[in-house]
Amino acid sequence: xxxxxxxxxxxxxxxxxxxxxxxxGTWHTSGIERLGVRRVRVADGPHGLRVELGASLGESxxxxxxxxxxxxxxxxxxxxxxxxxxxxGREASEQGVDVVLGPGVxxxxxxxxxxxxxxxxxxxxxxxxLASALVYGLQAEGVGACVKHFAANNQETDRMxxxxxxxxxxLREIYxxxxxxxxxxxxxxxxMCSYNKLNGTHVSQDPWLLTDVLRGxxxxxxxxxxxxxxxxxxxxxxxxxxxxxxxxxxxxxxxxVADAVESGQMSRELLELGxxxxxxxxxxxxxxxxxxxPVDAAAHHQLAREAAQESMVLLAxxxxxxxxPRAKVALVGEFARSPRxxxxxxxxxxxxxxxxxxxxxxxxxxxxxxxGFLLSxxxxxxxxxxxxxxxxxxxxxxxxxxxxxxxxxxxxxxxHLRLPDAQLxxxxxVAEVGKPIVVVLSNGSAVEVxxxxxxxxxxxxxxxxxxxxxxxxxxxxxxxxxxxxxxAETLAVRLGDHPSSLMFPGETGFVDYGEGVFVGYRGxxxxxxxxxxxxxxxxxxxxxxxxxLVVKVTGTPASRDLRVAVQVTVTNTGxxxxxxxxxxxxxxxxxxxxxxxxxxxxFTKLRxxxxxxxxxxxxxxxxxxxxxxxxHGRWVVESGLFTIEAGPNSRDLPLVQELRLDVPAxxxxxxxxxxxxxxMADEEAWAALMARVPGGASIEFTPEVMAVMAGQPxxxxxxxxxxxxxxxxxxxxxxxxx
Length: 738
Hints:
Blueprint: H1 5-11, H2 14-20, E1 42-44, E2 62-63, H3 69-75, H4 78-94, E3 99-101, H5 124-140, E4 144-150, E5 163-165, H6 168-175, H7 177-186, E6 190-193, E7 197-198, E8 201-202, H8 207-217, E9 223-225, H9 234-240, H10 253-263, H11 268-287, H12 297-311, E10 313-317, E11 328-332, E12 350-351, H13 357-360, E13 366-370, H14 381-392, E14 396-402, H15 421-431, E15 437-442, E16 458-461, H16 469-478, E17 491-492, E18 510-512, H17 521-526, E19 531-533, E20 544-554, E21 563-572, E22 578-588, E23 599-608, E24 613-621, E25 627-629, E26 634-636, E27 640-647, E28 655-661, H18 676-681, H19 683-690, H20 703-709, H21 714-717, H22 727-737
Parallel strand pairs: 1-3, 2-12, 3-4, 4-6, 5-7, 5-18, 6-9, 11-13, 11-14, 14-15, 15-16
Antiparallel strand pairs: 7-8, 10-16, 17-19, 20-21, 21-24, 22-23, 22-27, 25-26, 27-28
Helix pairs in contact: 1-11, 2-10, 2-11, 3-12, 4-5, 4-12, 5-7, 12-16, 14-15, 19-22
């Protein structure tokens, strides 16, 4: 039943509005039955719907389990993500869910993050683009999305309390842009705040983040909800811009809010502001047009299969893949029989069905299975001996390795990147047989591959493939499908090479993001550090060539209409059809601030037939050349030489072109601590200051003096004896030029 928000605000009592901004139990918002305002139902579901049968984590209704974000990200395919979102929307609609709590777009600052399987990438453009597509697809079916966890929630260790200390530049360039892109392009119904503190303030009551940035800078008009249990002070959080507390037992926070209004501590207008957003959310749910009829479970299972196919990344292959039609295959590893297809915690889906590689591959090739290891991680020599015997009787070995459930779950971070010792012992023993080995990984976050890669003739990063992952894997292994995935995160040689390694997960209640903007490949490239496999990397069953990079520029950064069109021609030089991900990176050095050697600024995925060529155009705007200036408090493009590179991954960029941009210098905001050099750089302010020198004289500095004094705040310098200026002079000029 439709209603008018303003009418409800006028008719509702303070108590009713206070209840409205506090959830009703675990999975519903509150309504106002007297005025015809119903509750809104929410459910977990970043990669599959999880509608609880009870009030908390436990059994849930069956739903399609798609590959988690770690896999979907490797597809680099927004069109696929849109289709997955649409399927999620149809299942949510069938189960009476109004808002799905997902997707999660937090950046993979460290490969140890326990919830990395729920997140897309170390790169904000990739994460934001894919998440936007999923949100768009979901909401096209009349079901809202709730993007999370806003913001800087990049670890599980002490996640409810840890104080993330991070510069505004790193926030603006790395940790906020994925949220920004989703908000601006897909308009999610809800944004969920995270648990942690941000620079000393709990996010749930941080007005800078929830109001100034989200609603001010990005013009967001949806509802902001807490993560479950994130609220400390309901009155303070409401004032900061948090519209809905979840979960909530009525009689607590709602009473605090009502009392605050009655006592004058908080205005009714502020309460109405939050209540209006919840009413608008409810109105969206009431007015939504949703699909009729039952969900086609078989079609969704097939979509999960397609998604898993595109998620798989072929990292190495000496020709053993695709498997020969008559090959006798030794399939070793318990994961082939007990598939690991999703992570643990609030995103765990009760899948409608689960495929097993021991079945799907046996339907295509002659297979002998040997479990090889125990999921518990204990050594079992008999299982290893059985696997070795299977290898001896085979033409090729497919070894299914990966991380057990206990090592990847919400609530705890990992402490290392190694595969379990029992699995590595199995691989070493089987390698002694001398047969070709295909290693298939099942893992929700990056693992160390360099120590054992020599044993693998081929390496398939299968990530967590969802319920149809084993079907997709069989398709890829036998060559019926192309492994078209590309890495959405860098695979390091060792944990200590990661830019965040010395500062993760922090200490005594805080964590410093000391690496700044140098996260993931940005940090590896800046340090010129060797990697096992670079960001964006992935092989296929065909090959591609790149040529004819053309860069066309219109507009200027100064007028904010800068547009750069990057044209690239790609040719399939192999003998079968395949997919390629064209990636465009922009670099700017030297600059006034440290900048990464290159940053992903555009990408597209192509499917080409053998011998086919295609020219694609990837657009860039001023933001692609900008950095966040903490001096100016805005995005800035500086004059200088920029490098535009195109190719298949961040360390294979065969096409390069330089572009010079000339931009008028922006005047830095002067303040009480501005240095002598900063004052002198502002000609207008310096002239105004010199006009206050008695007798019309000026202050001159020799190069030797400037070498010592340039970095001294001018206001302090004015306090020296014999300096013909005073602190009052500086303050007077600041008042008109600061």
